Amino acid sequence: MHDSSLSVVDITSFFSASASGGVRTYLTAKARALRRPGIRHAIVVPGETTGVQEWHGSTLYRIRSPELPFAPAYRQLIDWRAVAEVFDAVQPSVVEVGSPFGDPGVTRRALDGRRVAVVGFYHADLVRTFAEPFVKSTVLAPLRVMLRMTARRMIRSIYNRFDATVCASPRLVRELRSLGVRRVTEVPLGVDLRLFRPLGNGGRNGPPLLPNGAPVALYVGRICPEKRLDVLLDGHALLPRSERPHLVLVGDGNIRDRIAGRVKEGGGVTLLPYVTDRNELVRLYNAADYYVAPGPGETFGLSIAEALACGLPVLCVGRGAGPDRIDGSGAGELYRHGDPADVARGLRAMNRHLTPDARARARAHAEQTLDWSVTFDRLLALYDRLATRS
């Protein structure tokens, strides 16, 4: 059981007022789950202006912060004095830091020596998402190696300063430990199983996205380099047109125009805008035959979890945390990272999963492994241990 007077503060710059994302989804579920007797929960995020509001049962503090020039939907917390004022007001027992960029330093300065436990949640794979430039030239291979080494040193330096590091997938836990990060705890994330669900019985459950009956492979997420949509599209193009599933890519991002150009050049691909309505997103999942997860830098894979919960088998790159989501499900296939030919093989292999039984296995796996209550029971147990030591 949690302590009777636990005050939890989440602080992160991975939060946008105009875009969804895994961290925002996590914090939404967390705010709802921590509406329990004896727990106070506050969230500190950057904003266009400073303000405070009730948010899903928690208190959301926005602090005026500058936009990131390379990602204008997001801002970076820099005003540690404003953060300190929040800490003065809420008197945290535990602070959880959700971004490694700037937020750990802002948090330390704002705490100013207070005896408060600080947890780092490893929401971003620094090596695969930020350190590896996606270039094919062998001339730049030494740069890739140097950036990987730098990122690994950063990971050790940043996360060993926390009282605990939380990671959502066992593969990433093992990787962090191999890099020398101490005090790593696995806390899997979950999915809203009541919202994300099959809308019918067996087969494709939603209205058909295509009139020609071709299998529909769906991707939902950011349209950005680290998601490696280039490898997915290259593999798709290797298949004869008669064997290609129709790819439906849903989202926005900084390479959307480039991907739109590729969509026009090839066949069997549709690019749709970012979907804000969660019920509409559920209908999209239900209108597809399977899901594709090409990003090798996932630290959990919430969109994979949503797809499984809607009864979709998953084709997933064999790097990062994605394979953990489908392991043991009987409703998915993996392909080798960076290998378009193996993408093509995987797309062909997904034909065996176009059955009501496969959809039922996907949903059953989600029900067995993706329960949010497990997430927050484990987190509260960790918080209690740390707060007692502080």
Question: Which strand-content bin applies to the residues?
Answer: 15-25%
Q: Count the domains.
A: 2
Low-confidence stretches: none
The whole-angstrom Rg is 21 Å
Distance between the termini: 18 Å
Strand order, biggest sheet? Answer: 3-4-2-1-7-8-9-10
Overall mean pLDDT score?
91
Spell out the helices and strands N to C.
Answer: EHEEEEEHEHEHHEHEEHEHEHEHEHEHHH
User: Class of the largest domain in CATH?
Assistant: Alpha Beta
Q: Label the CATH architecture of the largest domain.
A: 3-Layer(aba) Sandwich
Question: How is the main sheet built?
Answer: 8 strands, mixed
CATH superfamily of the largest domain: Glycogen Phosphorylase B
What is the CATH third-level topology name of the largest domain?
Rossmann fold
- Broad shape: globular
The structure class reads alpha/beta
Number of β-strand runs: 16
Characteristic terms for this protein:
390 residues; alpha/beta; Rossmann fold; eight-stranded mixed β-sheet; six-stranded parallel β-sheet; 16 strands; 39% helix; 19% strand; globular
Explain this structure.
With 390 residues, the protein is an alpha/beta fold. The protein folds into two domains: 204 residues, Rossmann fold (3-Layer(aba) Sandwich), CATH 3.40.50.2000; 154 residues, Glycogen Phosphorylase B (Rossmann fold). 39% of the residues lie in helices and 19% in strands. An eight-stranded mixed beta sheet has the order 3-4-2-1-7-8-9-10, sandwiched between helices. The chain has a six-stranded parallel beta sheet with strand order 13-12-11-14-15-16, sandwiched between helices. Strand 11, helix 7 and strand 12 form a beta-alpha-beta unit. Helix 10 packs across helix 13. The longest helix is centred in the middle third of the chain and has 19 residues. The model has no long low-confidence stretch (mean pLDDT 91).
